[in-house]
Amino acid sequence: MKTLVIGTGGREHALALALSRDPAVTEVHAAPGNPGIGAFASLHPVDPMDGAAVAALAAEIGADLVVVGPEAPLVAGVADAVREAGVPVFGPSRAAALLEGSKAFSKEVMAAAGVPTAGSRTCVTADEVAAALDAFGPPYVVKDDALAAGKGVVVTRDRAEAEEHAAGCGTVVVEEFLDGPEVSLFAVCDGTTAYPLQPAQDFKRIHDGGRGPNTGGMGSYSPLPWAPADLAATVVDTVVQPTLDEMARREAPFVGCLYVGLALTAAGPRVIEFNCRFGDPDVQPVLALLDSPLGELLLAAARGDLESVPAPVFRDGASVTVVLASAGYPESSSKGDVITGVGAANGVNDVDVIHAGTALHQDSLVTAGGRVLAVRALGYDVADARARAYAAADLVSFEGQQRRSDIAAEPLGVVEGASVADD
Prior knowledge:
Strand order of the largest sheet: 3-2-1-4-5
Largest sheet: 5 strands, parallel
Radius of gyration: 20 Å
Number of helices: 14
Shape: globular
CATH class of the largest domain: Alpha Beta
Protein backbone atom coordinates (compact mmCIF):
# COMPACT_ATOMS: atom_id res chain seq x y z
CA MET A 1 0.00 0.00 0.00
CA LYS A 2 1.26 3.48 -0.93
CA THR A 3 0.12 6.22 1.42
CA LEU A 4 0.16 10.02 1.13
CA VAL A 5 -0.14 12.17 4.26
CA ILE A 6 -1.15 15.80 3.79
CA GLY A 7 0.14 18.42 6.24
CA THR A 8 3.21 19.75 8.00
CA GLY A 9 2.83 19.25 11.73
CA GLY A 10 3.22 16.85 14.61
CA ARG A 11 -0.05 15.08 13.88
CA GLU A 12 1.13 14.35 10.35
CA HIS A 13 4.53 13.14 11.57
CA ALA A 14 2.87 10.80 14.07
CA LEU A 15 0.45 9.47 11.42
CA ALA A 16 3.20 8.98 8.84
CA LEU A 17 5.38 7.21 11.41
CA ALA A 18 2.55 4.86 12.38
CA LEU A 19 1.87 4.12 8.71
CA SER A 20 5.57 3.41 8.10
CA ARG A 21 5.44 0.76 10.82
CA ASP A 22 2.47 -1.01 9.18
CA PRO A 23 3.82 -4.09 7.33
CA ALA A 24 1.27 -3.59 4.54
CA VAL A 25 2.49 -0.06 3.80
CA THR A 26 5.27 -0.15 1.21
CA GLU A 27 5.70 3.60 0.67
CA VAL A 28 4.96 6.69 2.75
CA HIS A 29 4.76 10.08 1.06
CA ALA A 30 3.96 13.45 2.59
CA ALA A 31 3.04 16.85 1.19
CA PRO A 32 4.68 19.06 2.13
CA GLY A 33 5.72 17.25 5.32
CA ASN A 34 8.55 18.38 7.59
CA PRO A 35 12.20 17.43 8.27
CA GLY A 36 11.18 14.71 10.73
CA ILE A 37 8.89 13.02 8.23
CA GLY A 38 11.56 13.41 5.56
CA ALA A 39 13.84 11.10 7.54
CA PHE A 40 11.72 8.08 6.52
CA ALA A 41 9.28 9.25 3.81
CA SER A 42 9.29 11.00 0.44
CA LEU A 43 8.37 14.69 0.64
CA HIS A 44 6.58 16.67 -2.09
CA PRO A 45 6.35 20.50 -2.21
CA VAL A 46 2.60 20.62 -2.73
CA ASP A 47 0.28 23.16 -1.07
CA PRO A 48 -2.05 21.24 1.30
CA MET A 49 -4.82 23.75 0.55
CA ASP A 50 -4.71 23.08 -3.21
CA GLY A 51 -7.13 20.22 -3.76
CA ALA A 52 -6.34 19.84 -7.46
CA ALA A 53 -2.61 19.68 -6.76
CA VAL A 54 -3.08 17.12 -3.97
CA ALA A 55 -5.27 14.96 -6.21
CA ALA A 56 -2.73 15.20 -9.04
CA LEU A 57 0.10 14.18 -6.71
CA ALA A 58 -1.92 11.21 -5.44
CA ALA A 59 -2.45 10.04 -9.01
CA GLU A 60 1.19 10.65 -9.95
CA ILE A 61 2.63 8.51 -7.15
CA GLY A 62 -0.11 5.89 -7.42
CA ALA A 63 -1.36 6.44 -3.88
CA ASP A 64 -3.71 3.81 -2.52
CA LEU A 65 -4.70 6.02 0.42
CA VAL A 66 -4.54 9.75 1.10
CA VAL A 67 -4.75 10.94 4.72
CA VAL A 68 -5.55 14.63 5.11
CA GLY A 69 -4.24 15.72 8.50
CA PRO A 70 -5.16 19.36 9.27
CA GLU A 71 -8.57 20.93 9.55
CA ALA A 72 -8.08 23.84 7.13
CA PRO A 73 -7.68 21.68 3.98
CA LEU A 74 -10.62 19.53 5.06
CA VAL A 75 -12.88 22.53 5.60
CA ALA A 76 -11.70 23.85 2.22
CA GLY A 77 -12.78 20.63 0.47
CA VAL A 78 -9.42 19.05 -0.35
CA ALA A 79 -10.77 15.57 0.43
CA ASP A 80 -13.56 16.13 -2.11
CA ALA A 81 -11.01 16.80 -4.87
CA VAL A 82 -9.12 13.60 -4.04
CA ARG A 83 -12.33 11.52 -3.99
CA GLU A 84 -13.39 12.96 -7.32
CA ALA A 85 -10.06 11.75 -8.72
CA GLY A 86 -10.97 8.21 -7.65
CA VAL A 87 -8.41 7.88 -4.84
CA PRO A 88 -9.52 6.63 -1.41
CA VAL A 89 -9.11 9.44 1.12
CA PHE A 90 -9.38 9.42 4.90
CA GLY A 91 -10.93 12.77 5.74
CA PRO A 92 -14.41 14.26 5.60
CA SER A 93 -15.91 16.20 2.74
CA ARG A 94 -16.26 19.97 2.90
CA ALA A 95 -19.89 19.54 3.94
CA ALA A 96 -19.07 17.08 6.73
CA ALA A 97 -16.02 19.05 7.91
CA LEU A 98 -18.37 21.88 8.80
CA LEU A 99 -18.70 20.04 12.13
CA GLU A 100 -15.42 21.75 12.94
CA GLY A 101 -15.58 24.64 10.52
CA SER A 102 -18.58 26.13 12.32
CA LYS A 103 -19.24 25.65 16.01
CA ALA A 104 -22.77 26.91 15.50
CA PHE A 105 -23.41 24.19 12.90
CA SER A 106 -21.86 21.62 15.22
CA LYS A 107 -24.22 22.64 18.01
CA GLU A 108 -27.17 22.45 15.61
CA VAL A 109 -26.21 18.88 14.65
CA MET A 110 -25.72 17.87 18.29
CA ALA A 111 -29.16 19.21 19.18
CA ALA A 112 -30.79 17.37 16.28
CA ALA A 113 -28.98 14.15 17.21
CA GLY A 114 -29.72 14.38 20.92
CA VAL A 115 -26.04 14.50 21.85
CA PRO A 116 -25.32 15.51 25.47
CA THR A 117 -23.46 18.82 25.39
CA ALA A 118 -23.23 22.22 27.04
CA GLY A 119 -26.09 24.63 26.71
CA SER A 120 -25.20 27.36 24.23
CA ARG A 121 -26.31 30.38 22.26
CA THR A 122 -25.00 31.54 18.90
CA CYS A 123 -24.42 35.30 18.98
CA VAL A 124 -23.67 37.92 16.36
CA THR A 125 -24.28 41.23 18.15
CA ALA A 126 -22.85 42.62 21.38
CA ASP A 127 -26.37 42.63 22.88
CA GLU A 128 -26.78 38.93 22.08
CA VAL A 129 -23.41 38.18 23.67
CA ALA A 130 -24.31 40.15 26.80
CA ALA A 131 -27.61 38.31 27.14
CA ALA A 132 -25.90 34.93 26.75
CA LEU A 133 -23.23 35.80 29.30
CA ASP A 134 -25.99 36.84 31.70
CA ALA A 135 -27.85 33.58 31.10
CA PHE A 136 -24.91 31.22 31.65
CA GLY A 137 -22.91 33.21 34.19
CA PRO A 138 -19.23 32.73 35.08
CA PRO A 139 -16.93 31.09 34.25
CA TYR A 140 -17.71 32.54 30.82
CA VAL A 141 -17.05 30.35 27.78
CA VAL A 142 -16.83 32.20 24.46
CA LYS A 143 -15.89 30.37 21.25
CA ASP A 144 -15.13 31.77 17.83
CA ASP A 145 -17.58 30.15 15.41
CA ALA A 146 -14.88 29.70 12.74
CA LEU A 147 -11.53 27.90 12.66
CA ALA A 148 -9.05 29.57 15.00
CA ALA A 149 -5.96 27.30 15.01
CA GLY A 150 -6.53 26.13 18.57
CA LYS A 151 -6.83 29.62 20.04
CA GLY A 152 -10.47 30.53 19.47
CA VAL A 153 -11.78 29.80 22.96
CA VAL A 154 -11.73 31.99 26.07
CA VAL A 155 -12.75 30.61 29.45
CA THR A 156 -12.69 33.36 32.05
CA ARG A 157 -14.40 34.88 35.08
CA ASP A 158 -13.57 38.33 33.72
CA ARG A 159 -16.71 39.63 31.99
CA ALA A 160 -14.76 42.31 30.11
CA GLU A 161 -12.33 39.71 28.74
CA ALA A 162 -15.20 37.55 27.53
CA GLU A 163 -16.87 40.50 25.80
CA GLU A 164 -13.59 41.63 24.24
CA HIS A 165 -12.94 38.17 22.81
CA ALA A 166 -16.45 38.02 21.36
CA ALA A 167 -16.06 41.45 19.79
CA GLY A 168 -12.91 40.32 18.00
CA CYS A 169 -14.48 37.20 16.52
CA GLY A 170 -17.70 38.17 14.79
CA THR A 171 -20.07 35.23 15.22
CA VAL A 172 -19.45 33.38 18.49
CA VAL A 173 -20.94 30.54 20.49
CA VAL A 174 -21.40 31.33 24.18
CA GLU A 175 -21.73 28.23 26.35
CA GLU A 176 -22.29 27.12 29.88
CA PHE A 177 -19.10 25.99 31.60
CA LEU A 178 -18.72 22.21 31.89
CA ASP A 179 -17.12 21.28 35.20
CA GLY A 180 -15.01 18.13 35.05
CA PRO A 181 -11.83 16.57 33.63
CA GLU A 182 -11.36 16.85 29.88
CA VAL A 183 -10.89 13.79 27.66
CA SER A 184 -10.09 13.36 23.96
CA LEU A 185 -11.83 10.49 22.16
CA PHE A 186 -11.09 9.79 18.49
CA ALA A 187 -13.50 7.78 16.37
CA VAL A 188 -12.53 6.35 12.99
CA CYS A 189 -15.66 6.64 10.84
CA ASP A 190 -16.73 5.39 7.41
CA GLY A 191 -20.00 7.32 7.18
CA THR A 192 -22.14 4.76 8.96
CA THR A 193 -19.86 2.81 11.32
CA ALA A 194 -17.34 4.02 13.92
CA TYR A 195 -14.46 2.40 15.80
CA PRO A 196 -13.23 4.32 18.85
CA LEU A 197 -9.55 4.69 19.67
CA GLN A 198 -8.18 4.67 23.20
CA PRO A 199 -9.02 7.88 25.14
CA ALA A 200 -6.30 10.44 25.87
CA GLN A 201 -5.93 13.69 27.76
CA ASP A 202 -4.45 16.93 26.46
CA PHE A 203 -2.97 19.86 28.41
CA LYS A 204 -3.91 23.14 26.73
CA ARG A 205 -2.49 25.96 28.82
CA ILE A 206 1.07 27.14 28.22
CA HIS A 207 2.23 27.03 31.86
CA ASP A 208 2.22 24.50 34.69
CA GLY A 209 -0.94 24.14 36.70
CA GLY A 210 -3.17 25.24 33.84
CA ARG A 211 -1.97 28.84 33.89
CA GLY A 212 -1.48 31.22 31.00
CA PRO A 213 -3.01 31.43 27.52
CA ASN A 214 -4.67 28.58 25.70
CA THR A 215 -2.50 26.78 23.14
CA GLY A 216 -2.89 24.03 20.58
CA GLY A 217 -1.72 21.58 23.28
CA MET A 218 1.42 21.29 25.41
CA GLY A 219 1.36 17.57 26.07
CA SER A 220 -0.82 14.50 26.39
CA TYR A 221 -1.01 10.95 27.68
CA SER A 222 -2.90 7.69 27.34
CA PRO A 223 -4.47 5.54 28.75
CA LEU A 224 -6.46 7.29 31.49
CA PRO A 225 -6.57 4.93 34.49
CA TRP A 226 -9.07 7.17 36.27
CA ALA A 227 -11.62 7.31 33.44
CA PRO A 228 -14.59 4.90 33.28
CA ALA A 229 -13.62 1.62 31.61
CA ASP A 230 -16.63 1.81 29.30
CA LEU A 231 -16.10 5.47 28.32
CA ALA A 232 -15.26 4.81 24.65
CA ALA A 233 -18.25 2.52 24.17
CA THR A 234 -20.55 4.99 25.92
CA VAL A 235 -19.37 7.88 23.73
CA VAL A 236 -19.85 5.87 20.54
CA ASP A 237 -23.40 4.96 21.58
CA THR A 238 -24.50 8.38 22.85
CA VAL A 239 -22.42 10.78 20.74
CA VAL A 240 -20.65 9.36 17.70
CA GLN A 241 -23.30 7.06 16.24
CA PRO A 242 -26.15 9.58 16.62
CA THR A 243 -23.94 12.20 14.96
CA LEU A 244 -23.09 9.89 12.06
CA ASP A 245 -26.77 9.11 11.62
CA GLU A 246 -27.68 12.80 11.63
CA MET A 247 -24.95 13.70 9.13
CA ALA A 248 -26.14 10.88 6.85
CA ARG A 249 -29.67 12.28 7.07
CA ARG A 250 -28.23 15.61 5.94
CA GLU A 251 -26.61 13.85 2.96
CA ALA A 252 -23.14 14.74 4.30
CA PRO A 253 -21.82 11.37 5.54
CA PHE A 254 -18.83 11.75 7.83
CA VAL A 255 -15.81 9.75 6.65
CA GLY A 256 -12.63 10.31 8.64
CA CYS A 257 -11.74 10.99 12.25
CA LEU A 258 -14.43 12.51 14.43
CA TYR A 259 -12.66 14.02 17.43
CA VAL A 260 -14.92 14.27 20.47
CA GLY A 261 -13.70 16.66 23.15
CA LEU A 262 -15.45 15.65 26.36
CA ALA A 263 -15.93 16.90 29.88
CA LEU A 264 -16.59 14.15 32.40
CA THR A 265 -19.18 15.97 34.48
CA ALA A 266 -21.06 14.76 37.52
CA ALA A 267 -24.01 14.12 35.19
CA GLY A 268 -21.89 12.04 32.80
CA PRO A 269 -19.86 12.76 29.65
CA ARG A 270 -20.76 15.99 27.86
CA VAL A 271 -19.39 17.11 24.50
CA ILE A 272 -17.27 20.28 24.55
CA GLU A 273 -16.65 20.27 20.82
CA PHE A 274 -16.20 18.21 17.67
CA ASN A 275 -13.18 18.33 15.41
CA CYS A 276 -13.03 16.74 11.97
CA ARG A 277 -9.52 15.24 12.29
CA PHE A 278 -7.05 13.75 14.76
CA GLY A 279 -5.99 16.11 17.53
CA ASP A 280 -2.40 17.11 18.13
CA PRO A 281 -0.66 16.25 20.40
CA ASP A 282 -3.37 14.10 22.01
CA VAL A 283 -3.38 11.50 19.23
CA GLN A 284 0.39 10.99 19.51
CA PRO A 285 0.36 8.70 22.58
CA VAL A 286 -2.69 6.90 21.20
CA LEU A 287 -0.88 6.04 17.97
CA ALA A 288 2.19 4.93 19.94
CA LEU A 289 0.02 2.37 21.74
CA LEU A 290 -1.87 1.17 18.66
CA ASP A 291 -1.02 -2.51 18.21
CA SER A 292 -3.00 -3.15 15.01
CA PRO A 293 -2.31 -1.85 11.48
CA LEU A 294 -3.19 1.81 10.97
CA GLY A 295 -3.15 1.66 7.17
CA GLU A 296 -5.71 -1.14 6.99
CA LEU A 297 -7.99 0.71 9.40
CA LEU A 298 -7.90 4.07 7.61
CA LEU A 299 -8.22 2.51 4.15
CA ALA A 300 -11.30 0.53 5.20
CA ALA A 301 -12.88 3.72 6.54
CA ALA A 302 -12.01 5.62 3.35
CA ARG A 303 -13.68 2.89 1.29
CA GLY A 304 -16.81 2.90 3.45
CA ASP A 305 -16.17 -0.64 4.62
CA LEU A 306 -14.95 -0.33 8.20
CA GLU A 307 -16.75 -3.45 9.39
CA SER A 308 -14.56 -5.54 7.07
CA VAL A 309 -11.54 -5.05 9.36
CA PRO A 310 -11.15 -5.76 13.08
CA ALA A 311 -11.57 -3.00 15.64
CA PRO A 312 -8.26 -1.38 16.67
CA VAL A 313 -6.23 -3.10 19.38
CA PHE A 314 -3.95 -1.37 21.87
CA ARG A 315 -0.91 -2.72 23.68
CA ASP A 316 -0.46 -2.73 27.43
CA GLY A 317 1.44 0.12 29.03
CA ALA A 318 1.19 3.87 28.54
CA SER A 319 2.52 6.72 26.46
CA VAL A 320 3.26 10.34 27.33
CA THR A 321 4.00 13.24 24.97
CA VAL A 322 5.75 16.44 26.09
CA VAL A 323 5.68 19.44 23.73
CA LEU A 324 8.65 21.79 23.33
CA ALA A 325 7.43 25.19 22.11
CA SER A 326 9.25 28.21 20.73
CA ALA A 327 9.95 31.44 22.59
CA GLY A 328 6.93 33.72 22.67
CA TYR A 329 4.37 31.01 21.93
CA PRO A 330 1.35 31.24 21.78
CA GLU A 331 1.24 35.04 21.38
CA SER A 332 4.18 35.02 18.96
CA SER A 333 6.83 32.60 17.79
CA SER A 334 10.59 32.73 17.51
CA LYS A 335 11.98 31.17 14.31
CA GLY A 336 15.43 30.15 13.14
CA ASP A 337 16.80 29.04 16.50
CA VAL A 338 19.22 26.10 16.14
CA ILE A 339 17.96 22.84 17.68
CA THR A 340 20.39 20.34 19.21
CA GLY A 341 20.00 16.94 20.82
CA VAL A 342 17.22 15.50 18.65
CA GLY A 343 19.35 12.56 17.56
CA ALA A 344 20.27 11.76 21.16
CA ALA A 345 16.65 11.92 22.27
CA ASN A 346 15.52 9.75 19.37
CA GLY A 347 18.16 7.25 20.39
CA VAL A 348 16.54 6.67 23.78
CA ASN A 349 14.72 3.36 23.92
CA ASP A 350 10.96 3.63 23.27
CA VAL A 351 11.15 7.36 22.46
CA ASP A 352 10.13 9.19 19.27
CA VAL A 353 10.83 12.86 18.68
CA ILE A 354 7.91 14.20 16.66
CA HIS A 355 8.53 17.29 14.52
CA ALA A 356 5.86 19.99 14.42
CA GLY A 357 7.52 23.34 13.75
CA THR A 358 10.99 22.64 12.38
CA ALA A 359 12.94 23.53 9.26
CA LEU A 360 16.36 22.91 7.74
CA HIS A 361 18.72 25.87 7.31
CA GLN A 362 22.25 25.32 5.98
CA ASP A 363 22.25 21.71 7.17
CA SER A 364 21.06 22.72 10.66
CA LEU A 365 17.70 21.86 12.18
CA VAL A 366 16.04 25.10 13.32
CA THR A 367 12.77 26.19 14.84
CA ALA A 368 9.98 27.26 12.51
CA GLY A 369 7.76 28.69 15.25
CA GLY A 370 4.90 27.52 17.43
CA ARG A 371 5.09 24.06 18.90
CA VAL A 372 8.48 22.92 17.63
CA LEU A 373 8.86 19.30 18.75
CA ALA A 374 7.06 16.71 20.84
CA VAL A 375 8.93 14.04 22.77
CA ARG A 376 6.84 10.88 23.00
CA ALA A 377 7.72 7.89 25.16
CA LEU A 378 6.30 4.46 25.89
CA GLY A 379 6.42 2.99 29.39
CA TYR A 380 5.07 0.26 31.64
CA ASP A 381 2.58 2.73 33.08
CA VAL A 382 1.92 6.47 32.96
CA ALA A 383 4.57 7.30 35.57
CA ASP A 384 7.22 5.28 33.72
CA ALA A 385 6.33 6.77 30.33
CA ARG A 386 6.36 10.25 31.84
CA ALA A 387 9.81 9.76 33.32
CA ARG A 388 11.15 8.50 29.99
CA ALA A 389 9.60 11.39 28.05
CA TYR A 390 11.07 14.05 30.31
CA ALA A 391 14.47 12.38 30.43
CA ALA A 392 14.60 12.41 26.62
CA ALA A 393 13.24 15.97 26.45
CA ASP A 394 16.12 17.08 28.67
CA LEU A 395 18.49 16.16 25.82
CA VAL A 396 16.87 18.62 23.36
CA SER A 397 17.85 22.27 23.41
CA PHE A 398 17.03 25.48 21.54
CA GLU A 399 16.94 29.15 22.52
CA GLY A 400 13.82 30.19 24.42
CA GLN A 401 12.38 26.68 24.67
CA GLN A 402 9.10 26.44 26.59
CA ARG A 403 7.69 23.27 28.09
CA ARG A 404 5.45 22.27 30.93
CA SER A 405 6.85 20.17 33.75
CA ASP A 406 3.52 18.68 34.85
CA ILE A 407 2.29 16.73 31.81
CA ALA A 408 0.61 13.53 33.07
CA ALA A 409 1.65 14.31 36.63
CA GLU A 410 -2.00 14.10 37.63
CA PRO A 411 -5.36 14.02 35.86
CA LEU A 412 -6.36 17.23 34.14
CA GLY A 413 -9.04 18.71 36.36
CA VAL A 414 -11.12 21.85 36.39
CA VAL A 415 -8.07 23.98 37.13
CA GLU A 416 -7.39 23.80 33.39
CA GLY A 417 -10.99 24.47 32.44
CA ALA A 418 -12.79 21.57 30.85
CA SER A 419 -14.53 23.87 28.37
CA VAL A 420 -11.25 25.15 26.98
CA ALA A 421 -10.89 22.59 24.19
CA ASP A 422 -10.25 24.06 20.77
CA ASP A 423 -7.53 21.74 19.55
